[in-house]
Design brief:
heterodimer, A: 281 residues, MetI-like fold, 15 helices, 73% helix, flat, B: mainly alpha, two-stranded antiparallel sheet, 14 helices, 2 strands, 1% strand
Chain lengths: 281, 305
Amino acid sequence: MFPRPIEQRSRAARVGYQLALPVALLLWLLPLLGVAVTSLKPASDLASGNYFGLPSHLAFSNYADVFNNSPIGQYIWNSFKVTIPTVIGTLVLSSLTGFALGIYRFRGNIVIFFMFVAGNFVPFQILMVPVRDMTVNMGLYNTTTGLVLFHIAFQTGFCTLFMRNFIRALPRALIEAARVEGVSEVRIFWYIVLPLMRPAIAALSVLIFTFIWNDYFWATVLTTSASTQPVTAGLYALNGLWIAQWQLVSAGAIVAAMPPVLMFFLMQRHFIAGLTLGAVK
Amino acid sequence: MSLASTERRSRSWWREHQQRLTPYVFLIPGLIFFLVYVIIPIFESFWLSGFKWDGLGEKTWIGMANYRELFDDEAFYTSLKNNIIWLVLYLLAVPAGLFIAIFLNQRVRGIRVYKSFFFFPFVISQVVVGLIFAWFYAPNFGLFYLLVEKLTGTGIAVLADPDLVTYGIIAAGLWPQIAYCMILYLTGLNAVDPEQVEAARLDAAKGWKMLWYVILPQLRPATFIAVVVTVIGALRSFDLVSIMTDGGPFGSSRVLSFYMYEQALSEYGYRMGYGASIAVILFLIMMVFISGFIWKMVEDERQGN
């Protein structure tokens, strides 16, 4: 283990380490804590210059204000309407492509695979004008469907990489044995491979959920009105509206950040497994 | 011939050839989506960059005129310069992430919770990160502003200062990026071969030497991914610039991705062709890195087989 385990060190080092941990964490999360505290301050605190200290009383009313006086509820609903179909669509497409590229040897396999990988790295701006134009022509501009279709396509690149590598690591003997038994290819996919892909599916669902929930660029390019915009784009609009009302901006930001945060804490293991794919040989 | 027998024949035909056909059938839906929304638009953007187009009316072919204008455009050079600063400074996330990972790679009580909380900034959307740091830097009451004021006597309004603004935004971007690199390295450190470490310890290798000669070589896959995601992240930086400054003050915090968006969907009329030409330049810069990454991945793939 590197570095040397702290248990093997002197008592002073151990105590020092235990003290350093919370201090380091506090410094690391300082900006976030500041915003969290601000979101609970009554407006009068900010007006009277109490920026730093604790709130004079806990003003949960900021959160009520945010929900009652802004379309943030609608924004969040829109985010769900974009995120959940994208997760499902991407998983369906990429389990198929991952299976095709992971199991079979055929001409073009490696080229198609690296096309998915490379497409995944391109700057969004090179896609922006054509994708926006296409979405307008399909009559899907300023709809959540338009966003969903693009997200499914783009995320399929990353998910294909993930699924294919995952399927590659499965024992091939399993598939060979099934073939000898005369099981059809489609059934091999459905009854043998798909059940084994559960960990990959779990990891990708949390990752894609977070990526799509947090997407801001495409939200601003493909949607324009409060009835369709996801919460990231909505926050930008609200930020313009709430100039200098930091207690509201903070509360709004925290509300918008919540769903992926909950997702992360509930499914941490899968999340990290997905993110660190390939970090270990 | 009865219908049933045709069906039977086509079924047996499928059965005979299914091993060859299945991969294509399975690839088609994903491939169509990816081609239509990702691969073809790349070529379309190249083509569009030769036009003058407002996004609605007729396109007018103007050849290389967009590029000629671009190379005389002050704002383009500002964006390009900022992109380079982003790229260089953003890479600090890699060593910083390694440092935190080493700090946290212990087995004391509650360490898992600490690891999750250190990773936390990565889970939050960049829009929220941008707002958090905008508040952090806010003149007169932001934590950072007050801290600097305490130390030097005068506060700095980072986001209003053309010379500092880009650095301020990059610092905000580094926060989640360091968390990302940290988690990659924590996973990597977990897989470091303990026997090699013990053997090196017996040879009295310690500290930096141990890290450099024994640990880092074993962390190479983690380092590779950390560098890839950081370079891509630096060149994709858009969200923070848009949220924190909208490119200002006086356009001094623009980066290519933001300037492209600004031009294409400008409030003074859409300039899709000009935007496309900026996107092409950004794409070409990115291609240098992407081809390097892909080349390395293909090599690994060959060795794996």
